[in-house]
Amino acid sequence: MRRVLELTFKTSTEKTFTLQIQNPKADLTKDIVEQAMNKIMKLNLFDLSKGELVSIHSAQYIERSTRPLIK
Asked: Which terminus of the chain faces fewer neighbouring Cβ atoms within 10 Å, N or C?
């Protein structure tokens, strides 16, 4: 199964920006993810046309599995 951590932020122009992290740890807590998202916002790493990251919108794991029907 493939797992992605999807972090979504609100921007200064009231839009959202989503960052997907491949193969995250499976046991992340809300506090750890919030701390990481706050650090990402403070570092101001992204030059976005949607504005600067200003707050946390959401975070979620996305898990995908594939079941081949024909090989």
From this structure: C
